[in-house]
Amino acid sequence: MNRNMGQVDRALRAIIGIVVIVLGVIYQNWLGAIGLIPLVTAGVGFCPLYKLLGIRTCSEC
């Protein structure tokens, strides 16, 4: 699994993931669990959807 996400992309995904999780907790809604998806992809630096679409935001990869 090669990285296909750059640093800015990963940082934005991590922020969005945390915000969605926090909103899910605040509103007591299980949909906050969707925030795990961008958080995990940011953590590993790999996005399966990017792979399918042939997108790479990582300049050094």
Characterise this structure.
- Helix 1 (7-26) packs antiparallel against helix 2.
- 57% of the residues lie in helices and 0% in strands.
- The protein is mainly α.
- The chain is elongated.
- The chain has helices at residues 7-26, 36-44, 48-53.
- The longest helix is centred in the N-terminal third of the chain and has 20 residues, at 7-26.
- The model has no long low-confidence stretch (mean pLDDT 94).
* Proportion of residues in β-strands: under 5%
Query: What structural class do helix, strand and pairing data support?
Result: mainly alpha
Rg over alpha carbons: 13 Å
Distance between the termini: 12 Å
Strand elements, count: 0
Summed up, the helix count is: 3
Describe the structure in brief.
By secondary structure, the protein is mainly alpha-helical. The chain has helices at 7-26, 36-44, 48-53. The protein has one domain (7-53).
Q: Which secondary structure elements does this structure contain, and how are they paired or packed?
A:
Elements: H1 7-26, H2 36-44, H3 48-53
Helix pairs in contact: 1-2
